[in-house]
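User: For my dataset I need records formatted as: sequence, then structure tokens, nothing else. Please produce one.
Assistant:
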Amino acid sequence: MEEPIERNEIVFLLADDHSIVRQGMAILIDEVVPNSKIYQTSSSQQIVEMIKANGVEIAVIDAHFPDGNSLHIIPLMKTAKPDIKILVFTGLEEELHVLKFIKAGASGYVSKLSEEKEIRQAISDIVHKGEYFSPLSRNLMLQLVQNPDLINPLSRLTKRELQIAEMYAEGHGNLEIANSLDIKQNTVSTIKKNIFDKLKIENLVELIDLINTHHKI
């Protein structure tokens, strides 16, 4: 187990809509960083103002809140305080989501399903090194150099293709899509084939999964 970190007071912000998650993380932070000062919020809308008002140095935030999406909030946090370190603490699957949060400006990513030892290590690394990424995340970052679509395979689609992909994911059929967009039904079928080819998928179930994973968060 790592030794407690002895430094000047470090100001943390814990942002999660579940109180039990905040309280548990606060206990770990207090043990790893005994001289920390910890603020808490359950609302994504309060995060930026709390950073400004309290001189927050490290923020531990969930990936998603009932009132907002952290992918949109992280850039605002970095604008408010460019040197802030942001650890995303989430139940979302790391392999599918971590690159999006890195691109947004996160300094680290750790799963809520991780063992306590890993969460402690994440806290320690964020304080000592300014970042925490697992071997899986680092491997994905290396792969990203060769394949930028890893962040979001839907980026391969044109605006119209994405629009139609969303409509399929919402349960609309070819005729309904054609009538809604005032285009021919065979045009919709052609675009559907292009979508499947670009995404390397074979059916609507796979398309819905991609939309939910990469476009709905």
